[in-house]
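Sequence of Large ribosomal subunit protein uL29 (Microbispora corallina).
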Amino acid sequence: MAKGLTAAELRVEDQDVLVQKLKEAKEELFNLRFQSATGQLESHGRLRAVRREIARIYTVMRERELGIVTVEKEPSDG
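Predicted 3D structure, token representation.
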């Protein structure tokens, strides 16, 4: 999963891409929690970062659902 996803980057993505990124982030969070429980986790800061990425994705999805922010299509030149 890409590190440092911003809300602006997520807002231009399609819904399917957001769902895929959410799935990947949840899998990564599961693996990090498992490593933490077994004492193998090296980067505790990554746990926090992944939780924030998940929250950011959920926020963008909810904004779309409420109609606060719409998907911006790139203008076609031609």
